[in-house]
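#structure-requests
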Amino acid sequence: MRYRIEKDSLGPKKVPADAYYGVQTVRALENFPVSRLTFPPPMIRALGTVKLAAAQANLKVGRLSRPKGRAILQAARELIADKRGLQSQIQVDVYQSGAGTSLNMNVNEVLANRAIEILGGKRGDYRLVHPNDHVNMAQSTNDVIPTAIRLGILFVLPDLLRVLGDFEKGLRSKARAFDRVIKSGRTHLQDAVPIRLGQEFGGYARVIEKERGRIEEARGALLEMNLGGNAVGTGINSHPRYRALAVQFIRKETGLPVRPARNLFAVTQSMSDAVHVSHALRGLALEVTKIANDFRLLNSGPRTGLDELRLPAVQPGSSIMPGKVNPVMAEMLNQVCFHVIGHDLTIALAAQAGQLELNVMMPVMGHTLITSIQIMANGTRLFNERCLRGTRANVARCREFADRSLGLATALNPAIGYANAAEVVKEALRRDVSIRRVIEERGLLKDPKIARLLDDPFALTEPS
């Protein structure tokens, strides 16, 4: 491998000759070979957007010369669009120096070296464009990374919200399709009064609608940007107009209604806005886990379980048992939710670990939260497309359990009272016969109200 020699404040270092990154990235690669996890593309795109807006603002106020500024703008646009493989040059590990200094410098060096090329120079000749003096002008890691985290989250949330909207519609469609399917309700995993399968699915749809709303509500606080606060929020080394201009350019480039933070110190110190998004995502994951669990339980069998739902067969279920088919899409969704819930704890611990003017645990927060949103969107989309859409009701099985359910005795309460109805249940259990048979033998069907309810169990699923 061919190398070039670059210098930083710690001395000279060999850098691969064809690399767009530079000496500080090399040091980070040597210091933090932890996980081989790098930052997701939305985070890199967000960093490119921050650098683009900063260069535009510095050009506007006359701090950055036009040749250098235009070269940086072109390089930033190429990074955002991933031209020339520039995003692959952002190689630092997620687990790195606090605040994300290594990540910020990785981006600064890539953009500087690409800008140098655009100006006709050779990579590493920072006399033309310097990573710190020009690409990072009027910036600090401490305002660049929080802004990029917010933008990265805002970039990926619309996809999740669309997926949740589709999931809710799919559940409502099944609620309508299954509305006449009578089944036994279950509480404590024991027989309960009848319910319609469509009512169960309508409940699932409403839960997803509410969780989607909570995520949208948490999203609003992310629109405040602390870009321009620099190291601690004071805006040192920046032009008085820089802050407003930089955020204005972000708004123009992204179409997002971002705005300067009302208090730069608060947004630099605290990552609570990201925490609220994470907590909303955790709430969604908990509810989706419950839905996936219900699908698995209602699909159990087919001969020895509930078998009330028939899920589409998408792959063989066993390497040893012929013909076995498992609820794999629900199992996948469970695992996604578990991962997201664990990520929420990581984010909570990182958020409380900030001290004084800065939260230094931002790199893991940015990576973890953006990844959580992406896998939640992907997992839910696949479950909706490859499981929910093809799910069918086993109507006969549902009705069989409804007829055998001991919860039917609840319909007797208004006519014969709770204590007498309990005696009917005990006799049915002792003799292993249906509630209806005991009712018939005791002559209770002479009451037209009871007869009507047992003959039309749909009436038992509504107030009466």
